[in-house]
Amino acid sequence: MSDSGTAPVGRDASGAPPHGQDATNGSGPLRAHSRTAPAQDSPGSAEPRSESGEADRHGEHGGDGGRSGGSGSGSGESIIRRLSGWGSRLVLDDAPERVVAHLKSQILSQLGAARAGYGHPLGRRVRQAYGSPLQDDPQHAVQSLSMATVCLDFDDTAYAGHLSHSTVNVPLIYASSLGLDGRQLLTSVLAANETAARITAAATLGPFRGQTAGHTHLAGAVAGRLRAESASADVWAHALGMAFSVPTWSLSRGFFSTDAKLLVAAVPVRIGLSACDGARFGLTGPEDVLEHPQGFLHRFADVPLPEEAVAGLGTLWHTETFSYKIHPGSAYTSAAVDCAVELHHALEGVDHRDIAEVVVRGSIFTAGLDRIARQHRIGPDSSVAALNFSLPYNVATALLTGSLLPADLAHPAVDRPDRWELAARVRTEHDPALSRHALLATAPLGQALRRAGERAEAWVRAIDARAAETLPPAWLEPETDFRWATKNLGARVTVRLRDGRELHVERRGAVGAASGPDGTDHAALARAKFLACGGDPEAADLVARLEDLSPDDVRRLVRLALAGPDDSPASRPSTETPVARDVRDMRKDTAMETAALDEAYRGLIAAATAAAPGDEASAPPSGEHDADWTLAHVALSDRLLASTARQVLAGDAAGLDNGPAMDPKAIEELTTSAGRDVLVELVRRNAAELVGLLAQTPDNQRATPVSVRLVGDKGEELFSGAVPWGEIVRLRAEDHIPGHTGRLRRIAGAPQQS
Predict the structure, then answer these.
(1) What one-character DSSP code corresponds to residue 258?
(2) Among 510, 713, 562, which Cα is nearest to 135's?
(3) What secondary structure letter does DSSP report for 120?
(4) What digits encode the pLDDT tens for the residues 352-405?
(5) Sheet holding 654-657, edge to edge
(6) Is the terminal CB of the chain with fewer CB neighbours within 10 Å at N or C?
(7) pTM for this model (two decimals)
(8) Is 184 exposed, middle or buried (CB count within 10 Å of its CB: 0-12, 13-18, 19+)?
(9) Terminal-to-terminal C-alpha distance of the chain
């Protein structure tokens, strides 16, 4: 399960045959477009081609982005050796500010999950059994904390995995004993995120995803601790080699319906920390354990993706794929709960007995989870794990109360008869359109499916043919920049009243989910969550300026955020004034400013979404190209501009010819091989790639001359000459993209064709 256990797309955690999906009522499975790839030289591949027809990739950023089915990392070094060399040298200034902002939100949101966990009766039993997170022994402290943060399914998700149980918890606990300052703490979390997410992604097309993927925390624990200790790459490599030689294997029997779920992160964290102890004193492990024919990926992945582990090191930041939960429970139910919260207000004054039926339409992930959960009898005496996975109970609770809180997963709330009476009238339907949106998005599986290429269809089709019908075209390339990552696990909730009225609310994704250029105010969401879980506002303020905190400030933050009523006085926060900040001037090299281009693309993609057709296509105003032509042209243009950006960045002679992006045949091939949703997705990822390259380009290269040839849509030459690179980028931001946005808005407002 990408977010809460084994996915409905894939075997269950016991390795049993795949689960089917709920029957689809209404329209059949979505098969809007063929998955046949465009011709070899077609710009529909959205990738520059060499004379051999192979994708032309440049440098580290592109060189690791291939889709080969090999078991290696594309270089002479093993995957573990490459990750160890990179992660052990990683510093905070290597990451863009937007990535650092996600780190702070991730930490604060995880602290909120910890407080919610320890405040729940189940978490109180965890504290009694395993001790405080502030106890002297860091390994026992991390074990306790990992169980508390997983117990309510209130943790956040990334591509790929529920990272924070190890990638935040381990650095936090070791921060005090090691005397980490704020920058070191952030760096340790960053290194742990990137290492754990990449290895998890490499195995994500297999039986374990999300919380059942305990191997995530082997990597997170090793990288989080060893980066905090400034350990060498050799120590990293041997610790990872040892840890991944003994990965955990979760069984659905205990995971979905009992407190055994609490061990899913705690056990691999302990294994990872033990491997660190051994590696520091000379014990060794196999560096090739991930890709070896008798190694991890061949045992834990149906379709191994070793390329995912090393693609775009230093440019492709998994940390910025985070989605943040505002309700406890599986991410597969989050959008439905959001819809129910909204419907609660519309149902004011309606007795629950007047509700005849509640229908939740969702993607294969939501429908599949509901099918798995219904295999267990769920009621007032069920475990917290079972309640977390119960879509009927969670939706009914939100409809009746207007929220879903940790207290709703404990007595006396779970004893209320009205919740169970209404839950009995909640049913789930699979919606192929929502499945297609989900599989187009970066997370939970989209990026992995794109990396797998043609292998993805066979994998999905072997599990459920209806799911395969919702896949986007096989030629759609993996993303090369995650700044606009998406997670579209949407839902449509319909409440049917006994008097015949119907109320509907639909969401394309959950509140807090990664949402592309629209973004989400994750800092505000994380702060609100932490405070709602009883967090101290001072702790939230400390996290907000974490990069400026001294070691003493970090110790105070950890104690303030995690101290409970049973902690000793020595562990409780002092009332002394924090020490003076160790504020350092750590400026990065000045790069090209991309804010205007960012904003332009945000407007374009919003307009493209609004222009998306319903049952019929909107007619463009007279004399203008239609929306599909516009989107195809922009996508192709951005790929050409990205190629030029690489030339400028490398210091090579740079050129730009927009002919391929104006070629009627090329545009027709792309528009006939891709639907509107795929075209919008292609624009999003190609724009992100371009902006990502510009963000790496030193500002002094704005003056680099570019040999430009521009043609019109009939092939006539409009301009030929040298133009400074910065001027091309400026025109893109201020003229070209806004012009296309205006066209799409005019189309959206045009009358429907008859």
Answers:
(1) S
(2) 562
(3) S
(4) 999 999 999 999 999 989 999 998 889 999 999 999 999 999 999 999 999 999
(5) 654-657, 705-711, 717-724
(6) C
(7) 0.84
(8) buried
(9) 44
